[in-house]
Design a protein that fits this description.
This protein is an alpha+beta fold. It has three domains: 194 residues, Porin (Beta Barrel); 48 residues, no CATH class; 117 residues, 60s Ribosomal Protein L30, Chain: A. Helices cover 18% and strands 26% of the residues. Helix 4 packs antiparallel against helix 5. InterPro entries: Bact_OuterMem_StrucFunc, OMP_bac, OmpA-like, OMPA-like_CS, OmpA-like_sf, Thrombospondin_3-like_rpt, TSP_type-3_rpt. Its main location: membrane. Keywords: Cell outer membrane, Membrane, Signal.
Length: 454
């Protein structure tokens, strides 16, 4: 590693021919857009064996197994050798929580948001083409909008200066978790940065123009009318208008003598009049695909379509392919008896204690729900899982999610398209009864089924 670092510094010295102005060694405020890869597996292997073993056995995680993401970084020079660097990045992944957190790894990719602030120690100044640096800072993360953590990013990088303050940034960082909900990981990133503040520019004075040559032409505009009789001596005209051009009142390039609409700008093909608008919708007939029916510009002069013919145009209709009513935003109204039946079904869905395993008594009511969805293929269903407040919030949240997904998976197994289904868990956050009593807790341990068309 030491030999490699010395080699990089030597190459940077040899490439100093790409140096910038020595007066601008402190980096200007700059923004960088970066692509990065996250690696959780390699740090875990190193912690369970050693970095030597990982290298010898070629166990370093392949790029295809890492989680990609994007981030934005802000740079501000502090001194010639110190830069402030702040970043905000995001990626979708299955976050491998530490065992001690009590949170299981999710079954689906969810959004990870990370923000950090760092100080970069540059081994060379920005006058060199290639600048190696070391970095350290603090950071915070939010996963799935629920799990918050903190970490310490440390690492190294190479900055390749392209001139005018632009540079390519190649960076490796190690995120050391400092909270139970943060796991250790490597992050490799590549980005392009450009200044957002202007540099100092040399002011160049324009040469003094030569003095104008004074002339006294007898007919300046050459229209055959002497200047002393020409009311427009600098513009060729006709004697009829005392040396001025034939007027063009509306400024459409067609003089009033040839303009049938002299006070309204128009086109020569319409003898100086505007392109007609037969249907009066503000879109002229040349651009109007429905010239005799009033419409709107985004449909090229035609009316907004109404695909299902329910009198509600597609832009306001949340069910544009199903006949509905205005009171339900263009969707059909779900019958009250169907809602009552669905609520009864939901109250008869049961699981094994502390798990997401459906018990046999649940299959009959679930089958009735499948038939409702099969009878109306336009219906959609939200499956919501809830728990009481016994146990930790993290465990309850995970259990409510698993139960909701278990019900959704049952419907999928019976042929219901997954696009019509949505499952979510809310843990103990929305009780409908008092958690201080056994009856109240039993009511709070529930699954709710909610039909909708949009």
């Amino acid at each position: 590693m030491k030999k490699t670092l010395l080699l990089l510094i030597s190459i940077g010295g040899m490439l100093s021919v790409f140096a910038q102005d020595a007066t601008q060694l402190i980096k200007r405020p700059s923004l960088s857009i970066n692509f990065f890869l996250k690696d959780f597996a390699t740090p875990e292997l190193i912690s369970s064996s050693s970095i030597t073993t990982v290298f010898e056995n070629k166990q370093w995680t392949k790029m295809k197994d890492m989680a990609p993401g994007l981030n934005v970084q802000y740079f501000q020079g502090l001194t010639d050798h110190l830069d402030f660097m702040a970043g905000l990045g995001g990626s979708f992944l299955k976050y491998p929580f530490l065992y001690k957190s009590g949170v299981q790894t999710p079954v689906q990719d969810k959004f990870l948001l990370e923000a950090d602030a760092n100080v970069n120690l540059k081994l060379l100044t920005d006058k060199y083409f290639m600048v190696p640096y070391l970095s350290a800072g603090i950071g915070a993360s939010m996963y799935a909008g629920t799990y918050f953590g903190a970490y310490i990013p440390v690492g190294t990088g190479l900055q390749f200066n392209l001139g005018e303050g632009n540079f390519i940034n190649l960076q490796y960082s190690y995120h050391l978790g400092v909270s139970d909900l943060t796991n250790y990981n490597f992050q490799y990133s590549l980005g392009f940065a450009s200044p957002i503040a202007p540099g100092k520019k040399e002011v160049k004075l324009a040469p003094t123009p030569p003095p104008p040559v004074k002339e006294t032409p007898k007919d300046t505009d050459g229209d055959g009318i002497p200047d002393d009789k020409d009311q427009c001596p600098n513009v060729p005209g006709v004697a009829k208008y005392n040396g001025c051009p034939v007027p063009d009142t509306d400024g459409d390039g067609i003089n009033d003598e040839n303009d049938k609409c002299p006070t309204v700008p128009g086109l020569a093909k319409y003898n100086g009049c505007p392109v007609p608008d037969t249907d009066g919708d503000g879109i002229n007939d040349e651009e109007d695909k429905c010239p005799t029916v009033a419409g709107v510009a985004r449909y090229q002069g035609c009316p907004v379509p109404d695909t299902d013919g329910d009198g509600i145009n597609d832009e306001e209709d949340k069910c544009p392919n199903v006949f509905g009513v205005k009171e339900n935003f263009g969707c059909p109204v779900i019958k009250e008896e169907v809602i009552v039946k669905v609520n009864t079904i939901a109250k008869n869905i049961f699981f094994s204690t502390g798990s997401a395993q459906l018990i046999a008594n649940s299959y009959k009511p679930l089958g009735e729900m499948v038939k409702i969805l099969q009878d109306d293929p336009n219906l959609k269903l939200d499956v919501e899982g809830y728990t009481d407040n016994v146990g930790s919030e993290a465990v309850n949240q995970a259990l409510s999610e698993k139960r909701a997904y278990a019900v959704m998976q049952y419907f999928i197994s019976k042929g219901i398209n997954a696009d019509r289904l949505h499952a979510a868990g809310y843990g103990s956050s929305k009780p409908i009864a008092d958690n201080k009593t056994a009856k109240g807790r039993a009511m709070n341990r529930r699954v709710e089924l909610k039909l909708r068309y949009y």
